[in-house]
TrEMBL record:
InterPro entries with a match to the protein in the record: Hexapep, Trans_hexapeptide_repeat, Trimer_LpxA-like_sf
SUPFAM superfamilies: Trimeric LpxA-like enzymes
Name of this chain's protein: N-acetyltransferase
Protein's organism: Paraferrimonas sedimenticola
Similarity annotation: Belongs to the transferase hexapeptide repeat family.
Domain of life where this protein originates: Bacteria
Native organism taxonomy: Bacteria, Pseudomonadati, Pseudomonadota, Gammaproteobacteria, Alteromonadales
């Protein structure tokens, strides 16, 4: 049966991996056994996908990223160049009781270049992690986090544009409703949690 995905001649793809139609695996990328990658993904140069990793549809993983066992990436996620995932909360060279600590990156999230996601955390839907940040706790849906450790610096719409107080449509019963001026997307945030600049 013919592959429905593209793999560069220098890529190493396990025959036990499943890669969806239209996906592209570029130079020097290694995909291990029991990996599941969805349709229309792009795995750029020098990417490593560890055994058992699950990646959704339309995911972009940029150059020099290693996605380790225990990481799950949902649909439409962007992983910037040199982003780092971990899967061990107490790393030692020798640890006979070693176990994987899982990480989840939810639908539509973006991870900036050189950010680090410490294992055991969830990156929420459409959240954005700024370049160079270190995620040490869960990131809420639509949150923009930055720094080391990463802290909420605002919120973003699905388009990635920052939510502004000038976008507020209404606020009642502890919920503020914002409208994205680009496309009319409505975003509801708990008023007590809003941190906008």
């Amino acid at each position: 049966m013919e592959n429905t995905f593209f793999a560069h001649a220098t890529a190493e793809v396990s025959p036990k991996a499943s890669i969806g139609a239209g996906s592209k695996v570029w130079n020097l990328t290694q995909i291990r056994e029991d990996v599941v990658i969805g349709d229309d993904c792009i795995l750029s140069k020098n990417v490593y996908i560890d055994f058992g990793v699950k990646i959704g549809n339309r995911v972009k993983v940029q150059n020099n990223v290693s996605v380790y066992n225990g990481v799950t990436i949902e649909d439409d996620v962007f992983v910037g160049p040199c982003a780092v995932f971990t899967n061990d909360m107490t790393p030692r060279a020798v640890n006979p009781e070693w176990k994987v600590t899982e990480t989840l990156v939810k639908h539509g999230a973006s991870l900036g270049a050189n950010c680090t996601v410490v294992c055991g955390n969830t990156i929420g839907r459409y959240a954005m992690v700024a370049a160079g940040s270190t995620v040490t706790k869960d990131v809420p849906d639509h949150a923009l986090v930055m720094g080391n450790p990463a802290r909420i610096a605002g919120y973003v719409y699905r388009t990635g544009e920052r939510v502004s107080l000038t976008h507020i449509q209404s606020a009642k019963d502890g919920v503020a409703v914002f409208i994205n001026p680009q496309d009319g997307e409505e975003l509801q945030l708990q008023a007590g949690n809003i941190q906008l600049r």
